[in-house]
Structure of Hexosyltransferase:
Amino acid sequence: MLRRNRFGFRMRRRSFSNRLLQVLVVLSVLILFVYFLLYALRLGNDSLGPDYSWLKTRNMSHFILPDEDTTLLEPRVNHCSPTEKLRLVMFIHSVPGHFQARRVIRKTWLKEMLGYPGVKGFFILGQAESEKEQTDVVKEHGLHDDIVQHNFIDTYVNLTLKTTFMLKWLTSNDCHHSKFVMKLDEDSFINPAKMWDSLEHALLHTATAKSLINYLPPTAATTTKSKQDLFIAESVDYLLLGHVFQTVPIRDPTNRWYLPSRFYPLNIFPKFLSGTGYVFSNSISQMLYQCALKSPFINLEDVFLTGLCATTQMGFKFTHHPGFWPSKPSIGPNYVCYYKTYPLVHPLMPDEMEEMWVKIKDDHNCETFYFAFVQYATSFVDLFRNLFRL
Ligand SMILES: *[C@@H]1O[C@H](CO)[C@@H](O)[C@H](O)[C@H]1NC(C)=O
Ligand SMILES: *[C@@H]1O[C@H](CO)[C@@H](O)[C@H](O)[C@H]1NC(C)=O
């Protein structure tokens, strides 16, 4: 009896602390459950994200209208003559109201870039927000003759349309005779000499044309059979250069890069090139355009074109360039040596860009142990940030 009593007492004591533990465990599970439930509800709540009620179809042809003229403005002078040896055509995605950004770009890096042989540069825009704004854009275009404007509403979720309109204009224009095309954001800072170098030294990949037969333009597919045979027989040399991203979709509707899961249900992206600046060969621009027209709309232009089209569907390979910085280096992001050394750093506001342009022209020495150390430390920090997705 005594033993039992003692045993019972012990049991009771133990069971008291056990209970407490149980209660704690159950409570924390409940709290976690409610937390994840709320989180999931928030993630699933499209009403927090951008309004897609206008998107009645995801068929890109309905927006791009490949057989119709959709340009509102384009250069009056034919900048890309078919006889000129063109090396690079740059398209800067710009917002109609961002007059200052274009003004700064024109008088800084773009001006110098255009001094290299066979380089052309255009700003690509959608509709202006008001008639007044459109009048100003037309005036600006009158002065500089470097704006390509298409008929769509220029919003962040419509950047995929902007990229596809860029391809539409390019492929219907003599500019597609240039060797390379570059797509840029208006807040990307370019170091012309370094950018030129990275194109000079880029090695091309080769694809068999056979694997690309589905992406021939409709006209080429219907022209003489011999022409088509020729195309099939040949291989295609190409370059897809930029910062290669290997990442996952963001499902938080309040995030700028939110991707609704009904657009893309998988939880991993194919490799893609950061939209802050990527280069592709004109040898594949027509095929990229055809692929874009056939692919259902998603709101992330770089994932759409360089990921889902170029990688997943067409099987192209990328050339990663560590000197293309989609987000500024984490240590001393405004340190002048980054901008003197790397072809592309993003993002810079127009006044920062203007300031940095002056700075990179001074004779600041970057061949120092200090800068080597800073770069080393930066890559270390970035590695950690990527590992833990900070
Ligand atoms: C998209 O629209 C075009 C033009 O209306 C049509 O020819 C094409 O078949 C459509 N594509 C799909 C996948 O529905
Ligand atoms: C995107 O463009 C389409 C087609 O021009 C337009 O109907 C829609 O309103 C635009 N979306 C937004 C959010 O502005």
In short: The domain at 61-204+239-320 is CATH 3.90.550 (Spore Coat Polysaccharide Biosynthesis Protein SpsA; Chain A). Residues 54, 63, 152-153, 155, 157-158, 161 surround 2-acetamido-2-deoxy-beta-D-glucopyranose (ligand 2) (CB under 6 Å).
